[in-house]
Amino acid sequence: MSELIEFFTADRIMEIAGLAVGLAYLYFEYHANRLVWLMSVIMPMISLFIYYRAGIYADFAINIYYLLIAVYGYIVWTFGLKRKKREPLPVTHMPLKYYAAAIVALIAIFAFLAWGLVSFTNSNVPYWDAFTTALSIVAMWMLARKYAEQWIAWFIVDAVCVGLYFYKGIYFYSALYSVYTVIALFGYRKWLRLMHQDS
Rounded CA gap, 22 and 42, in Å? Predict the structure, then answer.
């Protein structure tokens, strides 16, 4: 009994709360429902606590970005990109013209974060932390613009995070990201169907 009590520390309880909110987030994202952005406000608040305590500093920092882009994503999904039309944003493919910029942004953010983590923190996973954070920043922008390919980016992030979080002892988040990895494949197919319905 004492081992069970020791296991369910404040950190574990926060992980379980994050797991519950994360599953709700995934449900709304899968269905392209704008309530995903409400979960995008709650989830980072929990994750800020968890990642800081685990010493995953880049993931900690990205959750501040998540809070900010949640507002942008909600506005864009609700009112669209064109101010005059004020129409909900449809699911689309990411235009080819944005791929080069996305790749350059990914490399630049990764290099900056990796340098910062190696130089200024005690992180023992600086490159993995920098990679998942950099790709997550790009993926969240893709999600905010409702590009179907955001699921491919999340599949890569989620698969890496499964191992990263298990290694760092964040077991409930490792389990959550295992679910995310599988759902990303189904989510991509679902969004392709939604895209064809909208066209």
Answer: 9
pLDDT confidence of residue 35: 92
Determine contact, residues 157/135, Cβ cutoff 8 Å: yes
34-62 in b/e form (b: 16+ CB < 10 A) is eebbbbbebbbebbbbbbeebebbbbbbb
d(CA 121, CA 194): 43
Chain centroid offset of residue 55 CA: 18
Q: Which domain holds residue 62?
A: 2-198
Find where tokens 């200024």 sit: 120
Task: Confirm whether pTM is higher than 0.70.
Answer: yes
- 11-66 per-position pLDDT tens digit: 888 888 988 998 899 899 999 998 999 999 898 889 888 888 888 887 788 888 88
Q: Count H helices, E strands: the chain?
A: 8, 0
Name residue 147's beta-bridge partners.
92
Domain count, the chain: 1
